[in-house]
Amino acid sequence: MATEELTNALAHWERHGTVAHLRLDDAARLNALSVPLVDAALRALDEIEADETVRALVLSGAGRAFSAGGDLADVGARVASGEPWPRLDVLRRLQRLVTRLRGSRLPIVAAVSGPAYGAGWSVVLACDLVVAAGDARFCQIFVRRNLVPDLGSAWLLPRAVGTLRAKEMMLLGEEWSADAAHAVGLVNRLVATPPDAEREAMRIATRMAETTPATLAMAKDLINRGQALSFEDLLKLEEHAQALALGTPETLRAMADFLEKRGVNGAG
Questions:
Q1: Per-residue pLDDT tens over the stretch 61-93
Q2: Contact at 8 Å (CB) between 113 and 61?
Q3: How does 35-68 read in b/e, with b if 16+ C-beta sit within 10 Å?
Q4: DSSP one-letter code for 137
Q5: DSSP H helical ranges for 67-118
Q6: Residue 42 neighbours by CB under 8 Å, 6+ apart
Q7: Per residue in 155-213, pLDDT tens?
């Protein structure tokens, strides 16, 4: 597959055929989420999503960590100065990253190695699937810093593991190993090493990229929006999405191929 790399300050991405690989790249600071890093990641996402040949995305961190969480030095300096980034503006700037990941038309696979702490774990939770290396570590560290969970963790985590387990993670602020996170359903695939995590994430993303982009985007939207809808409202959303899917040339070809195969095999 052809590979093309594009650099954008503290985040860079490569195209591998129909899959983009975006890396957070401030390894010296363990990819802590500063405003400059998040802005660079958002610009990279703009480029990736504007490329209609890209059908799936892998997200990882450069160096020894996925992300150590919010960059307290950067955020603290901006908050203390008062201008031009008051507290709410700083948080809203960082929140844009998880909002973009959840709302992206692309299915996103997080490849996690090393720490995914605090807001860094929030970013992982905003992705669609998670592959973790054996050295991955997860922690809702906020309370240990006298902070409340942010970047959507208090919404995303209970929906992933249930309220009681989420409270345990958030109110105790304990570290969870890759094995433990996998056991409670926060990791889809567990592999040995960081390179294995990126390879497995790329394999999964490549498989998803074989599906019609509109189908993937609508399926992702149904799942995400369905968490906040009643069953009846979800059915209404589903019927519109399915009607659109049934009308695409790709779906009509797939249905014809399936019916032809059944006829050849004598099934049905």
A1: 999 999 999 888 877 777 777 666 567 788 888
A2: yes
A3: bebbbbbbebbeebbeeeebbbbbbbbbbebbbb
A4: E
A5: 72-81, 87-103
A6: 96, 97, 100
A7: 999 999 999 999 999 999 999 999 999 999 999 999 999 999 999 999 999 999 998 88
Distances (CA, A) of 103 to 84, 113, 126, 193, 265: 27, 24, 9, 30, 41
List CB contacts of 55: < 8 A, sequence separation 6 or more.
Answer: 18, 19, 106, 208, 209, 211, 213, 216
Stated pTM of the model: 0.87
CB burial of residue 163 (10 Å; 0-12, 13-18, 19+): exposed
- Which residues, including other chains, have CB under 8 Å from residue 172's CB and lie 6 or more apart? 143
Q: Which residue intervals of 117-152 are DSSP H helices?
A: 119-125
Place of tokens 């399915």: 242
- The pair of structure tokens assigned to 53 is 């040949």
